[in-house]
Every structure is written in C-alpha cells, then in structure tokens.
Design brief:
By secondary structure, this protein is mostly beta strands. It has one domain: YVTN repeat-like/Quinoprotein amine dehydrogenase (Methylamine Dehydrogenase, Chain H). It contains two helices and 37 strands. Strand 5 and strand 6 form a beta hairpin.
C-alpha cells in the first residue's frame, strides 16, 4: 500500500520554473527522505486537532430524527463538485459498495507528480486528467475507450507539472493545467478548440457556468475566460500564499455570484459579469499550535445552497455565510480539506482527524459525530489515514480513504452500513451518477461501485 501522500505544497526557490515551484511537506509519511517521521504520543496525550475542535453533540439535536430528502436519478456530474454550486442532489443507487467494473485512466501519481482533481461525467462520457496531463474520455457505463489527448507542451522545459482538472458543458471539455494554460476540447472527439496561456500554473480544477470558465492560479489569481473563445473576461488577485494543500479546489457559482476559495483562507464573492468583489471573509484561525495547522488553505470546494455558502479551512474553521450580504451565520472550530455535503437541514463534513460530523445547517450545532479509522495500526497509532468525501448515494454517505477503504455511513446516526475495498490509495473525492459510485485511485484506476 502506498504511504499517505503529501498534504501540503510549499513554494521553492524562485530559480525553479513556474511549473515546478513547489516542494513537498508531508507530516504523516515516514517513507521519504524529505519527510520526518511523526507518530502519535504513547503516553495518552490527545491529538492537538481533536483537542482544539472539541466537537460536542447538542443534546437537543441528538433526540431529533434526521430526514434525508429523496434520491433522484443523476445522469451527469459535469463539474468537479458535481454542479456549478458544488451542491448536487443525492444520487439514486444501492450504495452497497459492490464492484461493478473498473478500468485504467492513464498515468497515476508518482514521486514527482500527483493527481488531485476528480473526473466529470457528461453526455455519457467520463473525462479525467491524468498525471501526465493527458485527458481521457471513456464510456460512463462500461469504461470502454472513446479517446485520449495529451496536453503536455512539447516545447516546454518542464517535463512534469502538478495541478489542474476538468469540467464539461455544451459539448466541450475544459481543462486547467499545471503548465499554466487552459484548453477547450471537443467532448466527442478530443480535438482542441482553443488554448490560452496564462501567467502562472493552475492547481485548481475549472468550473464552467454561464458561458465562462473559471480557474485559480497558483498565485491566487482567479481568471474568468470566455468559454467560446478562451479570451480572458476578467481577473481577481487575492492574497498570494505559497503554502497550500495538495488538492484541486474549484469555485462555486450561483446565478450571478462566484464564490472563490484561496490558499490564504480567503473566501471571496464576486460578480460573474465583471469580477467586482461583493464581499470577502477569512477562514483562517490565529494561535495555532503547529506549523502544519497554520496552513489556512480552503482545499475543499465552497458549497452554495439555499442562499448560504458553506466552506471549511485546513487551519480549523467551518463557516456558514449569507450569500447576499457576506455576513456569517455561524462558525465552528473544525479543520477539513474536504467539500461539505448539504442534505435537507443537515451539513455533513469530515475533519482532517477522521471525524465525520452532522451539523444543523441553520445553527452549526451538532447532531452526531462518528470517528472513522485514523491509523493503519490503531493499537500503535501509526500511519495516519486521510479520508475524502462525503457524497450521498441512495440515502448513504460515501467516503474513501488512503488505505483504499470505502465506507457507507448512515446519515441519521453515523453508523457504518457497508464497507468496500478498491485495493489502492484514494485521495480524490468520489463522484456519483447513473446509480453508481465512481472512485479514482492514486494510481489512476477507475473503480465503479454499485
């Protein structure tokens, strides 16, 4: 089993090229020469993150029954977050975690590059950007090959690059890349429609909505491009922050409002027509006790649902913000690198410490907390496990982890209902469509579960 992947990227010397200006910081992996071994103390001391978060169930909510809205038939997951607002409905399906089929999606992670963005599904095809910057299109029903297109520049001095992802819409696939360009491909053939070179690599995955493509560069600049031509419509420069989590976040869009997450912990709402800032908030926390916990990155996607924005930062803040005014509705100490899931009156989120919690979306109070597996060896407390998700399928919360385990959890009480194993590490959030769960492993294997 592969060791836990690096969770943060730190800017390296300026002499390095733009596509390679990051080095690794991995607080959990003892397998590399550049990463110190860290194990939990053996004297009974508590985790710093667990101590600071202090997740306490509200007794009044513990007695209430959580009602999950009905599942719907979902045919597409066309954006990295499912929909442009990153709040897709729960998909119908069994959620039994039995394997239906699997296929190869190209080059997976290695010591130099990592895959981080989820696949998308549109027009019956699944699209994925592999570690070699090749876009793969396969049938979403059986995995048969449709086409693949390599986007790595032949004349670039950089042989590898981190970052990027895909989004789909209007018969096209939009690709952001670690080589610093955004491209549009024909969804049926893979033929390139346009390519635009920007001033910095892109770690984020793109979002397509309202005739525009949005992506954030490694310099924390949000770029809005015309989807038809690739021309830059406008840009917004946030606070540049070199320390970030190895992920591929994307913006959330609702109507004329774009909500963008940044590595500094900034959450900014802008007008989609011209990029005018409407409001901003900071999800950073002061007084952190370790250098790792001081990384403020919003690595998960902000979610817009019911007139509110929900987002979490790595440094330990989960907040609900009024979309129109930018005023906080509530905030809780909760460190996460994942996208929250909103269902009915409940928000579900998993912490960096493997705590899956159900929050009342109106107040932020807690219905229940379930501790997922934290270590490869729970007795010796060695080998930290990273969880990704959740999504909801067939009335069950689905999560996967760095050990290749997949779990289905009851949204009513946090009990595990089913387990599965994809045999390889998983760091990319699952997606759901066609009554199936699609999981991409760190070796770029697509595993489809019922």
């Amino acid at each position: 089993m592969n060791p836990l992947r690096p969770v943060a990227l730190i800017a390296a010397a300026a002499a390095l090229s733009a596509c390679s200006t990051v080095s690794r910081l991995n607080p959990f992996d003892g397998g590399g020469n550049d990463a110190p071994v860290q194990t939990a103390p053996q004297d009974g001391r508590q985790s710093i993150l667990a101590f600071e978060q202090q997740l306490t169930v509200d007794p009044a909510l513990a007695a209430r029954t959580i009602t999950v809205p009905p599942a719907v038939s979902v045919a597409e997951w066309s954006q990295p977050g499912g929909t442009a607002d990153n709040s897709p409905p729960q998909s119908s399906g069994a959620g039994t975690l039995e394997q239906a089929w699997r296929t190869n999606l190209g080059a997976g992670s290695n010591n130099r590059v990592k895959i981080a963005a989820p696949p998308v599904i549109a027009d019956g095809r699944l699209y994925f950007l592999d570690a070699d910057h090749r876009v793969h299109a396969v049938s979403a029903t059986d995995g048969s090959r449709v086409w693949d297109e390599r986007l790595r520049p032949e004349d670039s001095r950089d042989r590898v690059a981190r970052g990027g992802g895909v989004a789909a819409g209007g018969g096209r696939v939009y690709v952001s890349t670690g080589f610093g360009f955004v491209a549009a491909l024909d969804g049926a053939t893979g033929d390139q429609v346009w390519r635009v070179q920007l001033n910095a690599p892109l770690q984020s995955a793109p979002t397509f909505a309202g005739g525009r493509v949005y992506a954030v560069t490694n310099d924390s600049e949000l770029i809005a491009l015309d989807a038809a031509t690739g021309a830059v419509s406008w840009n917004y420069q946030a606070i540049a922050e070199p320390a970030r989590i190895l992920a591929a976040p994307s913006v959330a869009i609702d109507g004329e409002t774009v909500v963008a997450p940044f590595a500094s912990g900034e959450l900014v709402a802008l007008l989609s027509a011209n990029g005018r800032r409407l409001w901003s908030d900071s999800l950073s926390r002061s007084g952190r006790l370790t250098s790792l916990s001081a990384i403020n990155d919003i690595a998960g996607r902000p979610v817009i649902d019911g007139g509110a924005v929900y987002a979490a930062s790595h440094s330990g803040l989960l907040a609900a913000i009024d979309l129109r005014s930018g005023q906080r509705m509530w905030a809780r100490s909760f460190a996460s690198t994942q996208t929250p899931w909103v269902s009915g009156e409940v928000l579900y989120a998993v912490s960096v410490d493997g705590e899956l919690a159900a929050f009342e979306r109106r107040t932020g109070n807690i219905f229940w907390v379930s501790q997922l597996r934290r270590y490869r060896d729970e007795n010796d407390r060695r080998g930290r496990i990273a969880w990704t998700g959740p999504i909801m399928v067939g009335g069950r919360l689905i999560l996967a982890n760095s050990e290749g385990e997949v779990v289905a959890v009851s949204p009513a009480n946090g009990q595990t209902l089913a387990t599965g194993d994809v045999s390889q590490s998983v760091f990319i959030p699952p997606i759901a469509a066609n009554e199936h769960i699609y999981i991409v492993t760190d070796e770029a294997r697509l595993v489809v579960l019922n």
